Amino acid sequence: MDERRDAFLRRLLETPSPSGYETAGQRVWVEYVSEFADDVRTDAYGNAVAVYEGGDGAEMAFTGHADELGFVVSAIADDGFLRVRPLGGVDATVTEGTQVTVLSADGPVNGVVGQTAVHLRDRGDGDESADVTEQHVDVGAEDGEHARELVEVGDPATLAAGVHDLAGTRIAGRGLDNRAGSWVAAEALRRAAERGADGTVYAVNTVQEELGTRGASMVAFDLDPDVAVVVDVTHAADNPTYPGSHASEVALGEGPTVTRGGSSHAEVARAVREAGDAEGIDVQVEAMSVTTGTDADTVFTERSGIPTVALGIPNRYMHTPAEVVDTADMEAAADLLAAFAVREARRESFAVDV
Fold it and tell me: Which fold has domain 71-159?
């Protein structure tokens, strides 16, 4: 990944963007795509759409989602400790004893999710973590009055984990779900424009995916594209923590995945795989029986049905502050979508042949 693209990815990862509070992250994304898009717009809830107008061919949408897991302050106790509620599928087993950042109106406030020291727990205690709503955040306040000077109810928070380079082209960090997809959507637009795709390409960064794919419903209804590819992380099976009961062949560094089954459109999946074959891009196949757990599950049901496929970036340790992806898979995904845009720009319909 070259220096410019790497800097964009790191800015996305370093900018807090919890579900429902994505503005700061969206500003980073909009600033980047504005350099090469023909038009960039946002809606009332902060969904962002960048447009490349390459001709009168097919209209294609490549989407990621801007939001990350987080918390929201729900109460401030008289002793100065905060109670929080989760924003999205926060894993309570990884939050206790970690540092957090509360995003107050006056700036970031550092805090810690309390955990009883192992020395003080009875033998057998600690095997099960308390629910997030039962945990407390310590911002160092002397009492409730002091805490209320620092934060207020409704302030969002994120885990305070940074970005770390691992061996080769792999990185670890908080929020790779789904800054990886946001990056790919933006880069796919840029690369499709560079290749002169003869159609309209939308790069989309949705809000509130972690709260139920809410932003995707707004954007898909508004755009009504001929085809959509939803880019999100997917579970990599090539590590000791992956359960054997969930059979999968997905591995880091082997390319993006195309999902077959469920909400993924068979003809679009085939066309994406063919684009990969033509370009020499490795594409893994992932089976899905019902839903993908991504914005694809919402996009495909909008209007009279939008042909949609889920494109996955393999990710280890999802929904933890130490997610791991291979940036080579992200680069391959962006190249794959650009190739797809060029190959399928003059296609009249993606409907299945019945």
Answer: Elongation Factor Tu (Ef-tu); domain 3 (2.40.30)
